[in-house]
Automatic annotation (TrEMBL):
Residues 1-19 form the signal peptide. The keyword Metal-binding does not apply. Residues 249-301 form the LRRCT domain. Residues 20-54 form the LRRNT domain. One of its GO terms (biological process) is negative regulation of canonical Wnt signaling pathway. InterPro entries: Cys-rich_flank_reg_C (IPR000483), Leu-rich_rpt (IPR001611), Leu-rich_rpt_typical-subtyp (IPR003591), LRR_dom_sf (IPR032675), LRRNT (IPR000372), Wnt_signaling_inhibitor (IPR052286). Keywords: Leucine-rich repeat, Membrane, Repeat, Signal, Transmembrane, Transmembrane helix. This is Trophoblast glycoprotein a. One of its GO terms (cellular component) is plasma membrane. The chain crosses the membrane at residues 315-335.
Length: 379
């Protein structure tokens, strides 16, 4: 009887243990972990144990996520919702079956440190989508998470409005970003790692990195940077503690890249992949080390000086030719001075006769008596 009672108690405990784990999920109380991976789930499962610290709900088809999905999970520190086809971070669903993440969805996770929303399609991001109590969130992964590059404006608003002052790592890689809005990261004053690799950024400007004095890593590899203008160089210099990654960009090594090439040589200690940076264009400079492009800079200046010298030489030559033509003209005038003087006198006499004729006619017309004499004389 005693043995039978022990077995019944054991079975009851075992049954309660399995009952505490949601269907199609794997739970480990010892590891404080719950995994619901690739289980064709349509919603966040109910009944997640309160001991959970690490919650992985990935590879499913979640249709909606709201604050009620994570009630009673005050101990969760790591939450992964990657690869769930989440489309909207908004207050309401725009059309049937569009996945949705309500405002303040994560605000009840008082201990949340890491949030992974990678491999989703966030088309609309509500300003309070990442609101977390106690400013606890330290790591936010949005890699391959934006529906398209236009979502970056909503993201910028959300980063300003949400409580992310303690955030240390932000991953925005593989999102097809073409530009960064002005001051997009200015409220992330504790950020240490910013990953922007594998996007389509064409320029660094608009004070995009303002407020990131504590940044330690800035990854800009695999973008579309052809050069970095003076404004962009000043922004990069405003990150004194950051190690920069600039590889796999299509740098165009023409005369316009002079200041960037000089900056690279001056800042090699801050650029982790400086030795691997090469020219992509023009064809003759392809695979040339960016650190050696300073010689091209000198060539550009020499070419410019040569052009100026050639222009000055042409002006001098033109002046000499015009002066020589002028001398010839004066010499011809000197040889024909008598004939020219005669022609001038004849022209002067002809003008005088014409003038006297006009003067005579004017006197006749102005005196009626002379006019009558002339008339009778004609008769």
């Amino acid at each position: 009887m005693r043995v039978l009672a022990q077995r019944l108690v054991f079975c009851a405990l075992l049954g309660s243990l399995y009952a505490s784990c949601p269907p199609r999920c794997e739970c480990s109380e010892a590891a404080h972990t719950v995994k619901c991976v690739s289980r064709e789930l349509r919603a966040v499962p109910a009944g997640i144990p309160g001991y959970t610290r690490n919650l992985f709900i990935t590879g499913n088809h979640i249709s909606r996520i709201g604050p009620e999905c994570f009630k009673g999970l005050d101990n969760v520190t790591t939450l992964s919702l990657s690869n769930n086809s989440i489309i909207n971070v908004s207050l309401i669903s725009l059309k049937p079956r569009i996945s949705e993440v309500d405002s303040n969805t994560f605000s009840g996770l008082r201990s949340l440190r890491s949030l992974d929303l990678s491999n989703n399609q966030l088309a609309i991001i509500h300003p309070e989508a990442f609101m977390v109590q106690n400013h606890s969130l330290l790591d936010l992964n949005l890699s391959r998470a934006l529906y398209n590059h236009s979502s970056v404006m909503d993201l910028a608003t959300s980063l300003r409005w949400s409580s992310l002052g303690a955030l240390r790592s932000l991953d925005l890689s593989h999102n097809g970003l073409i530009f960064l809005p002005s001051h997009i990261f200015s409220h992330l004053t504790s950020l240490q790692r910013l990953l922007l690799s594998n996007n389509s950024l064409v320029a660094i400007h608009n004070s995009s990195f303002t407020g990131l004095e504590r940044l330690e890593v800035l990854d800009l590899t695999l973008n579309s940077l052809k050069a970095v203008p003076e404004e962009g160089l000043r922004e990069l210099d405003s990150l004194p503690r950051a190690d920069l990654l600039l590889g796999e960009n299509p740098f165009t090594c023409t005369c316009g890249i002079e200041s960037f090439a000089l900056w690279l040589n001056r800042s090699q200690g801050r650029i982790s992949d400086a030795e691997s940076l090469v020219c992509a264009y023009p064809t003759g400079m392809r695979n040339t080390s960016m650190l050696s492009v300073v010689t091209l800079t000198l060539g550009c200046h020499q070419s410019g000086a040569g052009a100026d010298l050639a222009l000055q030489t042409s002006y001098v030559f033109l002046g000499i030719v015009l002066g020589f033509v002028g001398l010839i003209f004066l010499f011809v005038l000197y040889l024909n001075r008598k004939g020219i003087k005669k022609r001038i006198n004849e022209l002067r006499d002809a003008c005088r006769e014409v003038w006297e004729g006009y003067h005579y006619r004017f006197e006749i017309d102005s005196d009626p008596r002379l006019s009558q004499v002339c008339t009778s004389a004609d008769i």
